Amino acid sequence: MTSAEQSVEQESNLATRNESIQRCIASLEHAVQCKEPECDRAECHKMKRVVTHTRGCRKRQESNCPVCKQLIALFCYHAKECHLEQCRVTFCQSIRRKLEEHKRLVELQDDLTTIEVMEAVINLENLTLEDGSSQEDVEMVEPSTSCS
Ligand SMILES: [Zn+2]
Ligand SMILES: [Zn+2]
Ligand SMILES: [Zn+2]
């Protein structure tokens, strides 16, 4: 493989990853506010489970829970862009307070954080919590080919 091919591949990888980060953040932002137990968003159930886990997780404080680590990385990503005074996203306001305190440090670690967030998104996509039936009905929205 030539290095030119490699860099093209990396670029499209990056775009896809950024897209899945955005998608992941969007479902997270939805899930923390969603009160619908039968919500038809495919990601919603999973996100809700993860958020519920993190709210009650005891290992979170010592930051040695892999599930929480991933979710916190996503919350950080959200919090960095978020300027809402009364944001309802869990942990958003406390993360923002921390970001303020460690502003210089965070700026230095910006690249690292992005990489961590990407890993988190990828891990979350493959994440299965305690459920045995991981059969999810993901509805694919396909462009209909009906041109009569
Ligand atoms: Zn929902
Ligand atoms: Zn946890
Ligand atoms: Zn927020």
TrEMBL record:
A GO molecular-function annotation: histone acetyltransferase activity
Catalytic EC class: transferase
Domain TAZ-type, first and last residues per copy: 14-95
UniProt key word Lipid metabolism: no
Location relative to the cell: Nucleus
Database matches in PROSITE patterns: ZF_TAZ
Zn-finger (TAZ-type) residues: 14-95
This protein's GO CC annotations: histone acetyltransferase complex; nucleus; transcription regulator complex
Keyword annotations: Chromatin regulator, Metal-binding, Nucleus, Transcription, Transcription regulation, Transferase, Zinc, Zinc-finger
Alphabetized SMART domains for the sequence: ZnF_TAZ (SM00551)
This enzyme's EC code(s): 2.3.1.48
Pfam family, one: zf-TAZ
Catalyzed reactions per annotation: L-lysyl-[protein] + acetyl-CoA = N(6)-acetyl-L-lysyl-[protein] + CoA + H(+)
Single GO biological process annotation from the record: positive regulation of transcription by RNA polymerase II
Protein's name according to its UniProt entry: histone acetyltransferase
Protein's organism: Steinernema glaseri
